[in-house]
Design brief:
The complex is a heterodimer of chains A (834) and B (138). Chain A has 834 residues and is α+β, with helices and mostly antiparallel strands. Helices cover 55% and strands 19% of the residues of chain A. Chain A has 20 helices and 22 strands. In chain A, the strands form five sheets. In chain A, strands 10, 11, 12, 13, 14 and 15 form a six-stranded antiparallel sheet that branches. A five-stranded antiparallel sheet of chain A has the order 6-5-9-8-7. In chain A, strands 17-19-20-22-21 form a five-stranded mixed sheet. In chain A, a hairpin with a 2-residue loop joins strand 5 and strand 6. Chain A is flat and about 190 Å long. Chain B has 138 residues and is an alpha/beta fold. A five-stranded parallel sheet of chain B has the order 2-1-3-4-7, with helices on both faces. In chain B, helix 2 packs parallel to helix 3 and helix 3 runs parallel beside helix 4. Chain B is globular, with a radius of gyration of 15 Å. Classes of the chains: A alpha+beta (834), B alpha/beta (138). Chains A and B meet through helix 13 and helix 15 of A and helix 1 and strand 5 of B.
Chain lengths: 834, 138
């Protein structure tokens, strides 16, 4: 029903909805109307009670004190005012008369006599008064219809206030005089018509209903329009569907027809293909027969052509140039010959003579050969000559010449090969050799090559200079002549051991030192590098050597120079060390001289006293003189000081003697060989000699091992090592300004087969950046004039090279430095010198 | 005549005593005090008046050149004679520097007692010669 007649259903639903809403609204309005009436009545009652209470307290009580009469009959009496109840009734009557329709009435079970209507007027009022006397808080409400109008009646209790009680109990006309505060005096009845507002609501409801009906009608009309539109669209769609179904059926029929036509076409095509295949097979057969015939004919022709071609290729394609001429006039030339000379074959054949193709310097020789050959003389049949190309450039040719028979007459056939490349290579080789030999001779080093049999092959100018032999007199000789006798056998063995196949020049070991023998019989030291190289089963050894005699001498001098430098530096210190005792020895000697003179004077006077005593009584004057002299000379001072002066002088003398001894110990002049020495003593001497270098900056602590055996060493060199390290330590401590004296500790110990000397300072340590370099020659961190940078380099050389020991150090920033010298105790452990 | 006060500064006790013995015959004119190093000398100078300081150059603790400079600065009236055993070390001529710093005389060890006495006399002599002039203008 909903789908077929939606409009009817919708209309019914809307009507029902409107009816329900209106019903609900009517109920709601009635309820609200009653509630509002109740609220109004309650507020009206409250207002009247409040007014009466206010009037009683604020007016009545005050005016009565002034003797003003308060009476219900106030209208007829002069200067009287109404009682509170009277005024309240008057107020209610006035308000009720103004048209609101609201009525208020006070009534009681005990009305004053002047109020005829003061008691309950009906059953309702009577019942209400009884109920309120029992439950004064429960007001009574009642909706009723009076004279056709719906009204509300509200009855509340009228209770006596404190201001009322005295008056009511004393009033002459009061029907009851035992009232108490809170007693129910009577009741206040309010009557309020409620049909006025109800009528207004109903009018509003009617207009609301009309509005809703109108809106529902408009909505339904809109829905009807939309539905009509939808219905038209559906009808159109249905028509279209029917039309497209018809079209589809027509198309399906057309496709079926076309498929049938295609099948017929395919069958016709298949027939045609079979026929074409048959025809093709028969044609192929015919073609094959024809092909066979052609091939056989071609083979015969090819055989003929090949034979000709081979011959032509032999001549034309030959890389060898072939030229046949008679008296210089070219008769035949092949492509190679023409190409060698930068020409076309035709160009050559067009020339009258081939002379232009021969370099002018070779023309006479070749002309002579040609003439002689044609006369049957014996001339070279193969030779090289320089040809000239068309562009004028030269070409080297090797040619073979013979006389042949050409068209019945003798002619000359030249078969030539281009050898320019070989010639260029030969020239380059010659140049290279020239350059090589130039380099060889330029080299400052001596360069000598020998073969496996140790015969000298190359001997450059440098070698001539070093050995004193001329190249010519030494080439081909055995290497032995360049070696001192004692090394020859060993050297031969070494070379033989090194021999082995190699094609690359190989460096055999590092540079090393060898001994050479000059022509004048002088031996010398050289630094040599040896390489060996094999080619075509031939081995060549090449040695490059540098005469280091001069640099050895320089090194030796450098060591001496450093020694002198340190001695120079020491000299000032030693001078100071010696000058100090000399000073006080001199001072003391002078003092002793003076003291002796003084004491001699005194002695003379004593002698005089003795003589006088022997002669008789001593003259007091003489005794006085002696006493005065003793005082003047300060004899007690002399007696104290003389022994001290002598003692200190002797100490000074000993000190000088010690220094001088130490100097001798330190220097060891001329002692160059190893000798077993007491290291402790040697170190002690060195420290004494160097005392002035350290005494202001360091406290020296020695910790010598008394059981240390004698150690083989070169004393002067060893002392210098200790000196260099101690001076460095002192300088390191001297650089630490304002930190007081440091300490240098020198220890000796035996560690296994080594004598170990540790020299420790409390200086700033060696910075990491320079640690690697400190043993490098000429490396120094000292300012100019304070050292050449040779000290530690020489120390290292002395310890390691000369003694086969080790020199190491331990250091850390702010932790000081310890140098550790280790010398082998056994002489056999020391490397032999050189 | 008031005795002159002389302060001998040397780190070597034997040298100090030797010099004291040399100066002993002049005990009525010169009063000799000994100090071990520059620091001790300056401490003494701050407590007692001295007319002459006889100081070594190379000393531990506080060396002579520095001492001379400080004496010149703090006690300009004090005369100074510098003595040195090394005298020259490396490229430095200590006694030359001492003179530049204000030492009136320098003596190189070993010097004779006469040379020392002569130098002291000379220094005091110049002092005495300068005195009347000062009085005239004073």
């Amino acid at each position: 029903v909903l789908y077929t007649h939606p409009l009817v259903v919708l209309t019914l639903l809307c009507c029902c909805g409107v009816a329900i809403v209106l019903l609900y609204l009517a109920r709601l309005s009635s309820y609200l109307n009653d509630a509002a009436a109740l609220q109004d009545a309650a507020r009206y009652a409250e207002m009247l009670v409040t007014f009466r209470t206010l009037y009683t307290t604020e007016v009545v009580e005050r005016v009565r004190a002034h003797g003003i009469e308060v009476t219900h009959d106030y209208a007829t009496r002069e200067g009287a005012i109404p009682l509170p109840a009277t005024l309240t009734i008057a107020l209610a009557n006035t308000l009720g008369a103004q048209g609101a329709g609201m009525q208020a009435r006070l009534y009681s079970a005990y009305p004053f006599p002047w109020r005829q209507d003061g008691g309950p007027q009906d059953e309702v009022e009577k019942t209400a008064l009884q109920r309120l006397q029992q439950h004064p808080e429960q007001a009574l409400t009642r909706f009723e219809t009076i004279q056709g109008r719906r009204s509300l009646r509200l009855i509340t209790a009228d209770r006596l206030q404190s201001g009322c009680v005295s008056c009511h109990n004393t009033h002459p006309h009061s029907p009851k005089t035992d009232w108490q505060v809170g007693d129910v005096r009577g009741a206040l009845a309010i009557r309020l018509p409620v049909d006025t507002m109800h009528g207004q609501i109903q009018t509003a409801m009617r207009s609301t209903f009309a509005l809703m009906i109108l809106m529902t009608g408009a909505g339904l009309g809109l829905v009807a329009c939309v539905l009509a539109k939808l219905r038209r669209s559906t009808t159109l769609a249905h028509q279209l569907a029917v039309e497209s179904q018809h079209t589809n059926q027509a198309l399906e029929m057309q496709i079926a027809e076309r498929q049938r036509a295609e099948e017929a076409l395919q069958r016709a095509y298949n027939d045609l293909e079979i026929r074409v295949a048959e025809r093709t097979a028969s044609l192929q057969q015919a073609n094959a027969q024809l092909q066979n015939e052609i091939t056989e004919r071609t083979k015969a022709e090819q055989a003929l052509r090949d034979s000709e071609e081979r011959f032509r290729e032999l001549i034309e394609g030959s890389v060898q140039g072939i030229l046949i001429h008679r008296n210089g006039k070219p008769l035949f030339v092949n492509l190679a010959w023409a190409a060698m000379h930068g020409c076309q074959v035709g160009e050559v054949l067009g020339m009258q003579s081939i002379t232009a193709f021969i370099a002018p310097e070779d023309q006479p020789r070749m002309a002579a050969y040609n003439a002689a050959r044609l006369q049957g003389q014996d001339v070279p049949t193969s030779y090289e000559y320089c040809g000239v190309r068309k562009d004028g450039s030269l070409i080297w040719l090797e040619t073979q010449v013979r006389v042949i028979d050409w068209e019945g007459k003798p002619a000359v056939q030249m078969i030539s090969v281009d050898i320019s490349q070989r010639k260029r290579a030969e020239t380059a080789l010659r140049r290279s050799e020239a350059r090589f030999s130039g380099i060889l001779d330029l080299a400052h080093e001596g360069i000598i090559s020998i073969d496996a049999a140790q015969r000298i092959l190359i001997f450059n100018t440098g070698a001539e200079r070093i050995f004193g032999y001329a190249k010519d007199e030494i080439i081909g000789q055995a290497l032995d002549v360049l070696l001192p006798e004692r090394f020859r056998a060993g050297h031969r063995r070494q070379v033989a051991a090194l021999d082995g196949p190699t094609t690359v020049p190989r460096l055999m070991g590092q540079r090393r030192e060898i001994y050479g023998l000059r022509k004048n019989g002088e031996e010398f030291v050289a630094e040599a590098s040896i390489s060996h190289f094999s080619m075509d089963d031939e081995t060549i050894f090449t040695v490059v050597l540098r005469d280091v005699t001069a640099s050895r001498m320089l090194e030796h001098r450098l060591v001496q120079a450093q020694k002198l430098e340190s001695i120079g530096q020491l000299a000032a210190g030693i001078a100071h060390e010696i000058n100090t005792p000399i000073q006080f020895i001199g001072d003391n000697a002078r003092f002793l001289q003076q003291a002796f003179a003084d004491l001699a004077t005194l002695s003379e006077q004593h002698t005089a006293v003795v003589h006088a005593a022997q002669a008789g009584p001593v003259p007091p004057a003489l005794l006085q003189t002696v006493a005065d002299t003793a005082v003047a000379l300060d004899v007690p001072y002399l007696l104290d000081e003389i022994p001290r002066a002598i003692e200190q002088s002797l100490e000074g003398v000993e000190r000088v003697a010690t220094i001088v001894r130490a100097m001798k110990e330190f220097a060891h002049p001329g002692q160059q060989d190893k000798t077993a020495i007491d290291l402790n003593k040697a170190i002690d001497s060195t420290l004494t000699v160097a005392r002035n270098e350290w005494k202001y900056v360091a406290t020296m602590v020695t910790d010598f091992d008394p059981t240390l055996p004698l150690v083989p060493c070169v004393p002067g060199a060893f002392n210098q090592v200790v000196l260099n390290i101690v001076v460095n330590a002192a300088q390191a401590l001297g650089e630490m300004d304002g930190q007081g004296k440091g300490t240098i500790t020198v220890q000796t110990r035996q560690v296994e087969t080594w004598a170990e000397i540790r020299i420790t300072d409390t200086g700033p340590g060696i910075p990491e950046a320079v640690q690697e370099k400190i043993f490098d020659p000429f490396f120094t961190t000292k300012e100019v004039g304070k050292g050449t940078g040779q000290g530690l380099a020489i120390a290292h050389d002395v310890v390691v090279q000369k003694h086969g020991g080790t020199l190491t150090f331990e250091t850390g920033a702010g932790q000081g430095t310890t140098f550790i010298i280790r010398l082998p105790l056994e002489p056999s452990m020391a490397q032999s010198e050189a | 005549m008031m005795p002159k006060h002389i302060l001998v500064v040397d780190d070597e006790p034997n040298v100090r005593h030797g010099l004291q013995r040399i100066l002993h015959p002049m005990r009525h004119a010169w009063d000799v005090t000994l100090a071990e190093n520059g620091r001790e000398a300056l401490a003494l100078l701050r407590c007692f008046p001295f007319d002459l300081v006889l100081t070594d150059i190379l000393m531990p603790e506080q060396e002579g050149l520095e001492t001379i400079r400080e004496i010149r600065r703090a006690f300009p009236a004090v005369k100074i004679i510098a003595i040195s055993g090394g005298g020259q070390q490396g490229n430095l001529n200590f006694l030359g520097i001492a003179e530049c710093l204000g030492a009136l005389r320098t003596l190189r060890k070993p010097f004779s007692p006469q040379a020392l006495l002569a130098a002291i006399h000379e220094v005091f002599q110049n002092d005495a010669a300068a005195l009347p002039g000062e009085v005239t203008f004073g």
